[in-house]
Amino acid sequence: MSSTTPTYTIRLFTNPSGTEVAAAEQVLADAFKGDNFTEMTVGRDPALVLPFGRSVLTAGLLEGTVYVAEDSTGTIAAVAVWFGPGTEYCHTELQQEKALKPLLSQLIPELQVWWSDQFLGEYNQMISDALGSEDALLNSWHLQLIGVNPEHQRRGLAGKIIKLVREKAHAEGYAVTLEPTTEIKRQVYERMGFATKGHHVFRAPKDLGESPMWSMIYSPPSGRT
Questions:
Q1: What angle do helix axes 18-31 and 49-63 make, rounded to 10 degrees?
Q2: Does the structure show a pLDDT above 90 at 98?
Q3: Cβ atoms within 10 A of the Cβ of 187, count?
Q4: pLDDT tens for residues 128-147?
Q5: Hey, what CATH topology would domain 8-218 get?
Q6: pTM of the model
Q7: 134-190 pLDDT, tens per residue?
Q8: Which terminus in the chain has less CB density within 10 A, N or C?
Q9: Counting runs of H as helices and runs of E as strands, what totals does the chain give?
Q10: Domain boundaries along the sequence of the chain
Q11: Distance between CA 143 and CA 41 in Å, rounded?
């Protein structure tokens, strides 16, 4: 009995239909089910993991760049939300209104305050301290979120998308930045050539737990960061 290795196509997710968007949201929800960082930020409510991914995907479709990997049947297997130079997640009023506010409105009041008054500020400070500039993300290709459907994991899809964008970034003279939230993922990115520049532990209110995050960068040959 012979086995066939699945084939995948990576493409820009432009002008997607409502059905395609829903499928991409579900991939992210399935990918981050049980993820400590994601569940901490939404109050340990499994039902809010999908809205979390929807928030990031919406922002990416508005002002970022989204790639998907599809199998031979056209089924979306992986989703990656990027923000290129000059853009950033929820950096504009449009993203805040269309992407961030709908998510925050579903959180318990304590978490809404934490997101607005603490978490986002801590995140920005971590990046600034690690990369040496408040505009580090605006001056790089930043991977905001990448998720692979569990049925399609361990086939190198995340790595292929990252390498594709890394080549594009380097051709433009930009670095690539990302922030893993587990030691295993940090080690994976390190093997891909990313350098760890900073580390921070985020702590949510109401005993919702804590999660580490690392700031990592892959600089272009010119050394531009």
A1: 130
A2: yes
A3: 12
A4: 999 999 999 999 999 999 99
A5: Aminopeptidase (3.40.630)
A6: 0.94
A7: 999 999 999 999 999 999 999 999 999 999 999 999 999 999 999 999 999 999 999
A8: N
A9: 9, 7
A10: 8-218
A11: 18
